[in-house]
Amino acid sequence: MSRWRKTLIAAGVGMAASAALVMTPAEAESFNLVVNYSCTGGIAGNSPVTIKARVNIPTVVEVGSAMNLSWTLEYTNTRRFLSPDYFEAGALTSIVANMKLDGAWNGVLEAHGTQEQAALQPNVRLETPAGLSSSAHLTEEGVIQLRPQGMTVDFLPPAGVATINNDELNRIKYQGPWVHDPATPVEYGDHLRDVHTSPQVDSTARIDFLGTGFEYIGRRMPGVSKVRVRVDDDTTGLVDPTKTESGQPTNAINGNVSLWKRVDLPYGKHTVIIRSLDNAPIHLDAFKVHTGAMIEPPTLHRANCVVTSAPDVVEITVKGHDAPTSPPPTTTGPTDNPTTTPPTTVPPTGTNSPTTSPSTSNSPSPSSQYTHPAIVIVGPGGTSTTTPSSSASATPTVTKYVRPQVVKTPKGGVNTGEAPDPPMDSGAYTLIAGGSAMIMSSAAGGLILWRRRAAHAGGVK
């Protein structure tokens, strides 16, 4: 390898190391709050569906900015949400998770997520949104208390009309000597050119469906039986297929005709039964199921989820734009219960610069640990408070907690259970940038010196 290539490699390594040093302070400024849910009812079925949510909460929040919470969901058992019936493509599952906020922002912050479904059959697994999101615009300084609350999982069926052909035996149940004719004459106009026929009185065909209405599709023609149409407990429906809609006898055979229609039913589970009343043929071409458009998902399919494990409350301090930032606590050793050393503040030089010195009111218990200076997790057990005093401007109060119930997953660093250090101040960036410049200038100087020596020795090759 030539000296030229060695010099370039050395310079590249130096610049890469400098870039790594400069990027180190830009670690994650958030942590994950873990909340466990148990969901029952509706599309959850007979046994609970359990879900774990990880709520990503920012650690740096300022007045005038938006606090964005992002949720990721995962199942913690083998059970899933299931389709309640047959549906065309386009159904939606939606999840709404609630977070109660008090203090500088009051109200319930809702996180929403929606997932569209393909065509469905009963008890087929429903796809759920992989994540949720919510946002709150912060207008005041102070402390916000976050409390995880319940979650709802809804199913919204697609609006429209679905046709169930007479040969779909998984949907239509026949009683009596019904016969399937798979190739009816084209001139009859039957749907899909097939029909089910029974010549005997009291022959029945039944369909159960979820929707808001239906149509009985058959034939108008001479010499056929009258038909009783029963909808749930209503037996008043009566059809005479030997007559036209105006009540006149017909001499033609017309298939694929809507003989009875009702679309004013409340959304839900319904049963339709057609019955022949004479010893004459009865024809069934198809049923059409109607589902009206709904603004809100029906509560019939709603699964309600309750919190089974989470911290009692999470506190976030909202700072002003010019509020001083407390230096991060230091820890020693990659242990599960790290030892915490309180931070010290070096007074700045100058006659007009304020000085700040923290004073501790209580000694933390051995099981306590610091979180990010702007975040406090309050769980079961006692708390101790560190209140800094200031001669010019106040710094936020930092509360430590016992037995934290939050999982913090910073990007990088030793897994000590603590939140990542806040960003370094501008002085530290200046020092790092200066060191990086020195490394690159040293590499460049070595290259120039080597070229000059080579020139004295007979030229650069």
UniProtKB/TrEMBL annotation:
Keyword Transcription regulation: no
Transmembrane intervals: 428-450
Domain of life: Bacteria
Signal peptide (from-to): 1-28
Region (Disordered): 319-397
Keywords annotated in UniProt: Membrane, Signal, Transmembrane, Transmembrane helix
Low complexity: bias regions: 347-368, 383-397
KW 4Fe-4S (keyword) present: no
Protein name as catalogued: LPXTG-motif cell wall-anchored protein
Native source species: Nonomuraea coxensis DSM 45129
